[in-house]
Amino acid sequence: MPLDTTSSFDEARRQIEICNACRYCEGFCSVFPAMTRQKAFADGDLTQLANLCHNCRGCYYACQYTAPHEFNLNIPAALAEVRVESWERLARPQAIARLFQTHGVAMAGLLAAALAFFFWALAAFKPQDGAGFYAHLAHNTMVAIFVPAFLAPLGLIALSVRDYWRETGGGRFRLIHVLRAFDNAARMKNLSGGHGEGCNFEDGDRFSNRRRVFHQLMMYGFLLCFAATASGTVMHYAFGWEAPYPLFSLPKLLGVPGGVMMVAGAAGLAWLKLRADAALGAVRVWGGEMAFILLLGAVALTGLALYAATGTDLTGPLLAIHLACVMVLFLLMPFSKMVHGFFRLAALVAEAAKPAPAGGE
């Protein structure tokens, strides 16, 4: 059943139209220059603006029309609601997306089920030979389990991004637009507050780049870990170099720093989320978002622990825990906040392909 998004879109439209008349925050991030291109906003326009928003909250603390003013503006919360609803509405199936966006308990339940499965698999499919954690679960068994669990969610995400592009009226774009979007995402430009001093996410009276740094630690740490897995795959199949790999090998030189960065990023983002005002975001998904941050941290932390415990009696139990965390992360990609990276990149590409607003660059 489609989500009833009428109220959230109507409220976001009301607030955006007031902002568009004021334009005090025009230099804060990509949202405000983008809104100046038009005077009326269709639902697809609001979805695009919502996914451009990084919830830095600088506009809220700078605004003269927040409560107790009769306009009662809260742009970060209004766009957060539309943004989350876009992830849920365009996901397949919607019911699963709504469940995991809002319920950290459901995420914990899936983790427990995955954990039980991998403890059973380690007992049922223990190979006759192998080294490292492959002595507990054969390489081919891991491939048979994880390749479908990774590719199927990516396929669902691709369908969701396609629908997002259609809904927001995304047109033709060139390579230069993609490169600009990647540059924007790599630098987390929209978390700089428009002036380089950072945003007000956890404290309205203080500019800080801490959220930007923690996001970068998480993003680059994740990419390093993915590169470590990819390099290990190439070494295994192309060169016949099988795991376990020594410390001074490409998978470990990429994966260990990546894991440390992810743990630091997850801890920092969770800390900032606890300090921030929940009313300036999508309140109903706070628990799901926090659970997902903790899941990312758990994936990295259990991976590091597994590497440290290689060759000990803890290898088997830690392998089951780590594989369960990775499995849940993969399965939840289309339904949790993990999908925001794909939607946000699509929003940045679409924005880069549009003409600069009047008076802009």
UniProtKB/TrEMBL annotation:
The keyword DNA damage does not apply. It comes from the Bacteria. The chain crosses the membrane at residues 99-123, 143-165, 217-239, 254-274, 286-308, 314-335. Keywords: Membrane, Transmembrane, Transmembrane helix. This is Tricarballylate utilization 4Fe-4S protein TcuB. The gene is tcuB.
